Amino acid sequence: MQTSIFTRQNPLFSRPIGDTISVLQICITSMERNFLSRFASGEDKTMNKTLTLALSLVVLGAASSAQAQFFLRGSFNGYDTSLAMTETFAGSNIYTATATGLTAGQKYTFLAANSDYSIQSGAPFQDVAATANANGSITAIFHNVATPNDGWSPNIRRLGLSGLDYSYELMGSPNGFSAPIASLTNVGGVLQGVVTLAAGNNDLVFRKVGDWSITIKENFGDSGNNIAYNAAAAGDYLVKLDLEGGRYAVEAVPEPATMVVLGVAAAAALRRRKK
Fold first, then answer.
1. 235-242, strands of its sheet edge to edge
2. What's the pLDDT tens digit per position in 139-165?
3. Backbone angles phi, psi at 227, to 5 degrees
4. CA dihedral sign of residues 250, 255, 260, 265
C-alpha cells in the first residue's frame, strides 16, 4: 500500500525530530529548480497550500510523539495508568494530579511514571507515602528533571505533596531515634527547624508528627536508606523540608561571631550605596 504523508503510516512520524528535518532537507534538495521557483513565488497556489499543510502535519506529528504522558500510580489505583497527570503549563516539566475518593487518614504509597516506567519519580521501589486528607484526596506534584543540581536532595526526579492536613518532625541518630530532634515550622511554604548535630555522619528521617508509618527518607520515599548527613563540625544545622518540591536540605547555621561579621559587611555595603 502506498504511504501517504497525511497518515501515521508515513515513516517521518516515527523518526526523531532531527531525523525528520534531515529527511525534509533531502526532499527539498531533490526538487527541480522550476518547481521550487513556482512554489516560492506562489504561482502554483494549490501545490503551495498542499505542501504547507503536509509539512505542518509532519511537525505536529513529530512533536506529539515526543510529548511524554505521565500518570500518578499507587496503591489507590493498583499502580495502573488511570490517573493522568497534567503539565502546569507547556514546557514547565511540572505535572500534577489529585487522587480522590480515598479514605481519610489512610496511608497510600505512589509514584509518578510514564506507561512503561522508563521515566519515574524517586528511586525504584521507594515510593512516596502519605495519608489522605479529610476530603479523601492526595495531590502529587511531579518535577520531571533528571538531575536538578539545585543544592537540594534528592538530586533525581522528584515527587512533591500538596494539600496535606498534617506536618512532619525530624528524627535521628543523635538520640537514637527515641524522640524528635527538631520540630519544623512552616516558613514561606517550607518546613524548617534547627538541630544540633555531632561532627561526622548523622542519620536523619522525617516522619509524620508522632507517626512512624509515614516517613521521608533519602530519596523522599517511605522506604530505603535513612538520610545520611556528614556534618563538617559539631554545631547547629538548619533543616529544610519542601513538601511541594519533593526535596530537603541540611546546612550549617552561622555562628554568632560570623553573623556579626556578615552584619557589619552588610551595613558597610549599604552605606556605600547611599553615598
1. 185-187, 190-197, 235-242, 247-252
2. 999 999 999 999 999 999 999 999 999
3. -75, 120
4. negative
How far apart CA 162 and CA 171 sit, in angstroms, is: 22
Which three cell numbers, joined as nine digits, stand for 135?
A: 476530603
The count of residues in the chain is 275
Residue 108 bridge partners (DSSP): 130
- The per-residue b/e assignment along 50-83, b for 16 or more CB within 10 angstroms, e otherwise, is eeeeeeebbeebbeeeeeeebbbbbebeebeeeb
Location of C-alpha cell 484526596: 137
In this prediction, residue 68 carries a pLDDT of 81
Decide: 215 and 190 in contact? Cβ < 8 Å: no
Tell me the three cell numbers of residue 244: 511541594
Stretch(es) of the chain classified as CATH 2.60.40: 168-256
CATH class for the domain made up of 168-256: mainly beta
Distance from first CA to last CA of the chain, Å, rounded? 80
Which residue shows C-alpha cell 505536529? 60
